[in-house]
Specification:
The complex is a heterodimer. By secondary structure, chain A is mainly alpha-helical. In chain B, helix 1 packs antiparallel against helix 5, helix 1 packs parallel to helix 6 and helix 1 crosses helix 7. The radius of gyration of chain B is 20 Å and the shape is globular. Classes of the chains: A mainly alpha, B mainly alpha. At the A-B interface, helix 1, helix 2 and helix 3 of A face helix 3, helix 5, helix 7 and helix 8 of B.
Chain lengths: 68, 259
Amino acid sequence: MNAVAAALRELWGLFVEDASLTLGILVCLVIAAFAFPALGLRDAWRGPLLFVLLALVLLENARRSARP
Amino acid sequence: MSWAHVGTVILAAFLASLVEFVEALTIVFAVGTTRGWRSALIGAGAGALFLTVLTLAVGPALQRIPLASLQLVVGALLLLFGMRWLRKAILRAGGVIGLHDEAAIYAKQTAALARHRGGTPPPPLRAPLDRVSLATSFKAVTLEGLEVIFIVIATGAGGLLAPAAVGAALAGSLVILAGLGLRRPVARVPENTLKFAVGVLLSAFGVFWVGEGRGFPWPGEDLALLGLVAGFTVVALLAVAAVRRSPPQALAVRPARQA
């Protein structure tokens, strides 16, 4: 049982390490899925805008992680 | 499907798998040299067999999932996986956390396994099987191998499983050959540079698959993938520069964790 729990923990750790980064990525995906269509954003802009949101999340997370 | 896309898939699967195979090899070497090769190799073989059975069982089921759904789910997982790697590579390059040192990990594993044996030399080849060796090798091969399988499925999610598998197989062959040739762990791999590149590639694939899964038309179609790779590279380099500009007291190097 311990081995299974340890394996599951390792699997979870593959995708989640910093909770704020994970949350930020998931929020971006939800925005792309629901807010982009609701805002009537042109189709061709949706992919690039998703990239920009994720890039901002990564930059903010890296800067915050480097703070004391 | 353009050659740029196929080439990016092979490269991403090759580089990402290379890192995982090197990590598995380090642990199997540590087990083999301290506790005997028989149990270490049987444990590693059992791990490889488990992964083969898992792939044969799950592989056909994946082909029944509609492509758009598969791309969406895999894209989201790839973003979580790839951006986690990229964040860590940025923090390592910026000096916030220590570099991943394969030689140090090997030394630590060797010392721990030797302590467990009470300092006695490794047993002869025909000695009875050692449960600790079996479990450690099995776990290393299984966990790193699961990451390789995920990487192959994720990068090849657009009907390019074969090129992704070729990239991973090349990486596996290269690491095994290097291990056999060197007879010690492959410690001279520029691991953080590799992880930086892999983080960029996997993150780019993640955004691309999510977009494909949601039906976003990418400007330039498949070539947009190269644009995303360039975009993530620029963003990651900016992040390293920002981290390095952080106040000096912030850069007290924290010890590195594995992976």
